[in-house]
């Protein structure tokens, strides 16, 4: 990697890191003997990185480059080109596949008008027709199908607004993680969040007739937020306004206690994302320090 900066470790480089990522300049911040070393991946970006650093130091507010239009531009690229879709497939294949699967199942297995497929994808009833969950019976009869159905409710949605809201945030948050940490890690994160948020909704929400990606969305938000707090050099970050929006919306929906809102899934996903994010970000930071010493 190309050396860009060597400053005292007490200097906060969060704003510079955010601006570099916005301009798609891959970089890494390392701490070594009381100093912060900022390295970038491409020599072709060195001049731009120097210019951005100078502007940040001067206190200039640097706008983000014009966005490609998000998911809509990827699916419906301008000029009839498939370049946007190709880019999304290459950089965020799992996130895009999830979005497309949810869109398809909104027609094939709508939650508000259940079909046979809808019932097959609902969270398993571990009470087995009774009102009591016998843990020993659950363990003895547990199958791969049960495990998959503990995940599958995230693919079900009830109506266009439910679907659109969740898919927009799944795309925005999921692609950040997948592009920085890879598809396999994104898959692991998704499984953890889906299991915990769905199980929380089943145990405390009063049944298995629920679905939606929102519990995972709140979990992804909390996960990225924790990486921003505990391992800022990884490049995962969220604007303060967006953090405030998610926290306020979670608070309001929990306070309203509407039957149509899966509050237990939201809270379960949020707490799972915080714990998983804080743990993995801390481990990643410690491993980075160990590698620097070698």
Describe the structure.
This protein has 2 domains: 2-57, Alpha-Beta Plaits; 80-293, Rhomboid-like fold, CATH 1.20.1540.10. The chain is built from 13 helices and 3 strands. It has a 3-stranded antiparallel beta sheet with strand order 1-3-2, sandwiched between helices. The protein has 294 residues and is mainly alpha-helical. A hairpin with a 2-residue loop joins strand 2 (27-32) and strand 3. Helix 4 crosses helix 5 (93-108), helix 10 packs antiparallel against helix 13 (263-293) and helix 11 runs parallel beside helix 13 (263-293). Helices cover 62% and strands 6% of the residues. The radius of gyration is 21 Å and the shape is elongated. It has helices at residues 14-22, 46-57, 70-75, 83-91, 93-108, 116-121, 135-141, 144-151, 160-181, 183-204, 214-230, 240-256, 263-293, and strands at 2-8, 27-32, 35-40. The model has no long low-confidence stretch (mean pLDDT 85). The relative contact order is 0.10.
Short description, anyone?
The chain has 13 helices and 3 strands, in the order E-H-E-E-H-H-H-H-H-H-H-H-H-H-H-H.
């Amino acid at each position: 990697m190309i050396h860009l900066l060597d400053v005292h470790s007490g200097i906060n480089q969060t704003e510079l890191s955010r601006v570099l990522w916005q301009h798609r300049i891959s970089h890494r911040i390392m701490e070594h003997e009381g100093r912060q070393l900022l390295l970038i991946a491409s020599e072709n970006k060195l001049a731009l990185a120097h210019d951005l650093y100078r502007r940040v130091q001067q206190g200039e507010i640097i706008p983000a480059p014009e966005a490609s239009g998000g998911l809509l531009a990827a699916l419906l690229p301008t000029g009839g080109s498939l370049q946007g879709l190709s880019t999304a497939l290459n950089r965020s294949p799992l996130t895009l596949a999830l979005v497309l699967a949810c869109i398809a199942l909104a027609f094939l297995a709508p939650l508000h008008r259940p079909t046979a497929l809808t019932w097959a994808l609902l969270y398993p009833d571990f009470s087995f027709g009774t009102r009591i969950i016998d843990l020993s019976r659950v363990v003895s009869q547990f199958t791969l199908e049960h495990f998959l159905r503990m995940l599958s409710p995230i693919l079900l949605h009830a109506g266009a607004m439910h679907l659109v809201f969740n898919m927009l945030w799944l795309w925005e948050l999921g692609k950040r993680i997948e592009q920085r940490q890879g598809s396999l890690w994104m898959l692991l994160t998704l499984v953890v969040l889906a299991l915990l948020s769905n199980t929380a909704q089943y145990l405390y929400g009063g049944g298995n007739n629920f679905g939606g990606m929102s519990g995972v969305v709140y979990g992804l938000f909390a996960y990225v937020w924790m990486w921003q707090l505990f391992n800022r050099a990884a490049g995962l970050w969220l604007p303060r306004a967006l953090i405030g929006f998610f926290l306020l919306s979670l608070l309001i929906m929990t306070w309203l206690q509407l039957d149509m809102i899966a509050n237990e899934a939201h809270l379960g996903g949020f707490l799972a994302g915080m714990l998983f994010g804080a743990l993995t970000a801390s481990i990643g930071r410690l491993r980075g320090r160990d590698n620097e010493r070698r």
